[in-house]
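Consider the tokenized backbone below.
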């Protein structure tokens, strides 16, 4: 690959938010700006001086591709390409030692070279782990079914532990008359994050399950919902709110009992 081709790849790659790495065999010969910022280096040359074998970046977690899953003498790119596309996921630590999940795409159209793209899917992690189908959803409201949540609660706990997050819940009891549950849920789905779970807990009770970095974040969520549910459009639901945050090392099964 000539210098002109690499220059074109560099110019285009530096405009991307995804991490883009060009390999010649096992050697890293180009890294884009987003990748360099993540690893706090100014250039590919500095990256190669600072870091060793590329595969050492991958956190040895059983749910993700890592060095332990490479068989025989094959390199990591050969190994990950043998997996189904949905299973090509790695985790790499940030400078603050926070694990992030990345979907991996590989282009090997030029002989001896591999263009590898790492797309940050950390926020999609829970949705990727969960198998979503109509049986998981409460038909009347469109929220997650309680039994389904209880089935995947351990998986949610694993994801929280892996990302070093705290689990919190917000109980929402509706006291209004003639409630349109589906419209209520649709209103909340518009404001909650992608990895939050809104669960129908009982006839007039919903529970929002979410992850936080610290207690103050949970209080901010509570304040946000107090403000939203007191608006003219929402106040007729008569929402009563209760925040519950997991104690240190408390498992989700115990937390559920306190909801």
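A designed sequence for it:
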């Amino acid at each position: 690959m000539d210098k002109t081709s690499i220059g074109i790849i560099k110019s285009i790659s530096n405009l991307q938010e995804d991490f883009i790495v060009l390999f010649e065999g096992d050697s890293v010969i180009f890294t884009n700006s987003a990748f360099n910022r993540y690893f706090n280096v100014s250039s590919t040359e500095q990256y190669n001086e600072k870091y060793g074998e590329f595969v050492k970046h991958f956190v040895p977690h059983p749910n993700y591709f890592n060095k332990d899953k490479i068989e025989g003498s094959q390199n990591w790119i050969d190994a990950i390409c043998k997996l189904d596309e949905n299973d090509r996921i790695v985790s790499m630590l940030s400078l603050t030692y926070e694990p992030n999940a990345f979907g991996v795409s590989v282009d090997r159209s030029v002989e001896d070279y591999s263009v590898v793209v790492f797309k940050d899917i950390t926020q999609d992690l829970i949705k990727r782990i969960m198998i979503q189908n109509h049986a998981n959803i409460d038909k009347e409201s469109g929220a997650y079914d309680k039994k389904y949540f209880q089935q995947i609660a351990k998986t949610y706990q694993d994801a929280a532990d892996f990302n070093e997050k705290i689990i919190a819940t917000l109980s929402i009891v509706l006291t209004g008359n003639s409630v349109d549950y589906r419209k209520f849920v649709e209103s909340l789905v518009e404001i909650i994050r992608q990895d939050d779970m809104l669960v129908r807990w009982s006839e007039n009770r919903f529970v929002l399950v979410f992850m936080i970095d610290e207690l103050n974040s949970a209080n901010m969520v509570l304040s946000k919902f107090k403000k939203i549910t007191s608006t003219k459009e929402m106040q007729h639901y008569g929402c009563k709110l209760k925040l519950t945050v997991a104690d240190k090392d408390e498992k989700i099964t115990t937390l559920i009992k306190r909801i």
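Residues 24 and 111 are 9 Å apart (CA to CA).
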